Recover the amino acids of this structure.
C-alpha cells in the first residue's frame, strides 16, 4: 500500500498535470486541423466541407457608398453596393422606395433617385443570393436645408443698400437657420444640435446644443475660409442637414460725396474722376469709409488730406473739406487725395483721389 507523504503527493500532482496537458494539446491540435481543412476546402469550392459561421458573415458584408451622404432638398442620391464574397452581377437585387418597388433584377447594384423637397425617404435593399439567406439593408434620408447667413461687423454709410463686407482683421457673425419640421410645426432653432467646421476642422468649443451662431475674426493676412455647419434636432441625427459657404475678405474702400449746402450730403451718387465746377469757386465734399471695423465714420479712423500734393492741416478725424479755387496762383485745377487708415487694424487702409476744375473756358 502506497504511503502518502509530501514526496508522493508531489509526484501524483505532477503526473496528473502532464497527462492533462497532453490530452489538451491533442484535442486542440485536432480542432485546428479541422478548421484549416474546412477553410481550405471552402476556398477550393468543395461543397461537402463544413463552412464556418464567420465565413458566412464575411460573405454578407457589403461595401456601401452613398453620394451625397447628407443630401439637401431635391438632391439626386446614388447608392452603390459591392461585396467580394458574392457575385452580385448574377444575383437578384431589389430596391424599394417608401414601400414601393423601384428597381429589381440581376446585378442592379446602383440606385439613383431624388430625395424630394421635404419628408422622409426610406430605401430598402434586398439581395437574394442562391442557396444563402436573404440580405437586407435599410437607408433613411431626411433632406433638410440649413441656411447659413453671415454679417460682417464693419461700417457702411447711411442709406447704403449693399451688404457690409468682411474685410481683413474684421469680425463676422455666422448664423445657421435650419428648416426642420416635426408634424405640422417647425422645430425651434434652440432645440437643434450644431457642429461648426472651418476648412473641414471641427470647431468643438463653438459646437453643441442650441449653438446656432459662430463668430470669427479674420487674420492680418486672411485667406478664403470654407465654412460649414451640420445640424439636427435633438435625438434625431438621421435628420441631419448641412449648410456651407465660403468667407472671402474684401478690401476696405472710400467714396466721395458732395456736401450740398441746401440738401446736405448727396448719397444718391458718388463723385469720381474729374468734376467740372464751371464758374463756382468752391465745393464742399465728404469722404465715407466702407468695410472698416468702426461704429461710425469718425470713431477711430484717421483722415489725411492733400490738395495738389500739399497736406491740409486739419484734425485727423475730419472727413469733410471745402475745396476752393486758388486765385493767388491762378490755378484752376485742384487735385484732391485722401488717405484713410484704422490705427488698430493695420490692414484696413485705403485712399481715393478726385480732380476739381474751376472756371473752365
Amino acid at each position: 500500500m502506497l504511503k502518502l507523504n509530501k514526496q508522493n503527493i508531489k509526484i501524483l500532482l505532477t503526473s496528473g498535470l502532464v497527462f492533462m496537458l497532453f490530452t489538451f494539446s491533442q484535442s486542440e491540435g485536432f480542432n485546428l486541423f479541422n478548421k484549416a481543412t474546412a477553410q481550405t476546402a471552402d476556398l477550393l469550392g468543395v461543397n461537402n466541407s463544413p463552412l464556418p459561421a464567420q465565413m458566412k458573415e464575411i460573405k454578407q458584408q457589403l461595401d456601401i457608398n452613398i453620394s451625397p451622404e447628407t443630401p439637401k432638398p431635391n438632391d439626386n442620391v446614388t447608392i452603390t453596393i459591392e461585396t467580394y464574397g458574392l457575385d452580385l452581377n448574377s444575383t437578384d437585387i431589389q430596391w424599394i422606395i417608401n414601400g414601393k418597388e423601384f428597381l429589381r433584377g440581376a446585378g442592379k447594384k446602383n440606385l439613383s433617385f431624388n430625395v424630394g423637397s421635404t419628408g422622409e425617404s426610406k430605401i430598402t435593399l434586398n439581395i437574394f443570393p442562391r442557396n444563402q439567406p436573404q440580405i437586407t439593408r435599410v437607408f433613411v434620408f431626411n433632406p433638410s436645408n440649413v441656411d447659413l447667413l453671415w454679417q460682417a461687423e464693419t461700417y457702411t454709410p447711411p442709406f447704403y443698400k449693399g451688404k457690409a463686407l468682411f474685410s481683413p482683421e474684421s469680425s463676422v457673425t455666422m448664423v445657421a437657420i435650419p428648416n426642420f419640421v416635426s408634424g405640422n410645426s417647425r422645430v425651434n432653432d434652440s432645440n437643434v444640435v450644431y457642429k461648426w467646421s472651418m476648412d473641414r476642422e471641427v470647431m468643438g468649443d463653438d459646437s453643441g446644443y442650441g449653438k446656432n451662431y459662430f463668430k470669427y475674426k479674420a487674420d492680418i493676412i486672411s485667406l478664403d475660409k470654407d465654412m460649414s455647419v451640420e445640424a439636427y434636432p435633438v435625438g434625431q441625427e438621421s435628420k441631419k442637414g448641412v449648410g456651407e459657404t465660403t468667407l472671402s475678405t474684401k478690401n476696405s474702400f472710400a467714396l466721395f460725396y458732395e456736401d450740398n449746402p441746401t440738401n446736405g450730403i448727396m448719397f444718391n451718387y458718388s463723385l469720381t474722376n474729374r468734376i467740372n465746377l464751371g464758374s463756382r469757386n468752391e465745393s464742399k465734399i465728404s469722404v465715407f469709409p466702407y468695410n472698416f471695423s468702426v461704429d461710425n465714420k469718425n470713431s477711430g479712423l484717421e483722415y489725411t488730406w492733400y490738395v495738389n500734393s500739399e497736406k491740409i492741416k486739419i484734425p485727423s478725424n475730419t472727413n469733410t473739406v471745402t475745396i476752393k479755387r486758388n486765385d493767388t496762383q491762378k490755378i484752376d485745377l485742384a487735385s484732391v487725395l485722401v488717405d484713410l487708415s484704422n490705427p488698430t487694424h493695420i490692414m484696413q487702409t485705403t485712399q481715393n483721389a478726385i480732380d476739381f476744375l474751376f472756371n473752365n473756358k
